[in-house]
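Illustration 12: ADP-dependent glucokinase.
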Amino acid sequence: MNILCAYNANIDSIYHIDGSELSHMIRELDADDSVFSDKLQKKLTSSPGSISSKTDFLAGLITCMRKGTGAEWMIKDSHVFQWIKNTFIDGSFMRMGGNMGIMSNVLSELGASRVVPNVASLSKLQLSFFSNKAIYHPFEGKLYKSAELENFLPANNNQPELIHFVFDFRKGDVVSFSGQEFEVPRENRFIATYDPLNFELHMDEEFRNYSMDHVSEMNGAIISGYHMLHENEVDSLPAGSEKASSGYKEKLNSSLDQLQSWKDIRKDLHIHVEFGHFSSNDIALYAFSKLSPIVDRIGMNEDELAMLAGLNGIDSKSILEMDSVAIADAAISLCNGSGLCRMLVHTREFVVSVSCMKNDDPEIIIEAMNFGAGCAAAFACSGKLADRNSLLEIASEIPESEFGKNECSKLAQHIGDKLKCSTVCGMHDSYQVTIVPTRICDEPVSTVGLGDTISAAIFLRELELSS
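Figure caption equivalent — predicted structure in token form:
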């Protein structure tokens, strides 16, 4: 299978910060700046919500640690980014980040023949986190594997590093500053993100040209990154004003034009969009409404479905409780109202698919969902991707979710027109509905990227079985 991937790949830099280290850092900064404490207190009282100074960064981190909550703030100043990088990068664990980056590696490791990703910043460090099996990067009119291009890329390439600094903290840590002291109530993380290109849905020109020249050879495209779009002052201008089309709408519409141009050349190109967690309700609604008539399927977890459902007047409480009936009904309702034909909802306990295509083979969907659930479970248990046979061997020893199996039975009773399938499937409100339980690893090595892993694996297996 040949697959295009866009848009967001970045570097995750994970740093475990403890209370004593943070307290020491604040004391040192306070000693160097006589008004540092006053500035920090003001930021703690009135949260900036983004990072343009050292005190902004510390205010975000302290607030999360004091409350035991998580947050992600954008770094807007390159000098602050450089300070955070110099201070923390040596003690961090770095890995591939970004939904598309993770999914492209999954596709490559699971046996796709050619995976071509859009890489907003083609740096040597970013390249080092891409799989070297089947990922190919267009560069100066040719395709290169990751390791080849890493060696070939000029030393003066000077591409910015797009780093998401993930600061993990633990319950019970004590932080002291400016005569105050608090204990962290629960473990969580604060993310400081420097990613000016992916926030803009940046399309690499080499990728754009390659995709247009070779889309006729591709079997599918898997897309993500729309949740990184953010509002600015231009977006709030009235319709008809000179700059009203700028901002996130302009960026998203440019992407839609690209997807449509692929479809114009290859009408049967299967496009899957992984939705993601949006910080803005307006952007989420706009993205969903505009993507739905163009793409073949949108994937999301129950939190993202609940957000969309709530914005459309659908009760989200049962969705967040992972009620399979509520999830299937909400997915069908959202598809009906948007023009989307297929939706995939992946939860910890089960996966649900709804489709308006009556000629979709339910057994293909079922096999693909079981394949994805097995790959994700094996990845959770082992903490690494491997070839599919190794992953499926590991998965065969991991039990299916009991909660998921109960929800499968519950949904089966709700479906009026059942089909003869190897698991639960049937027609409900004119949509084909299928559900499979996931497999649950009791002691996961990794939980980051499981949603991306299951979606990418399902996507690949469906392409294989339908070709």
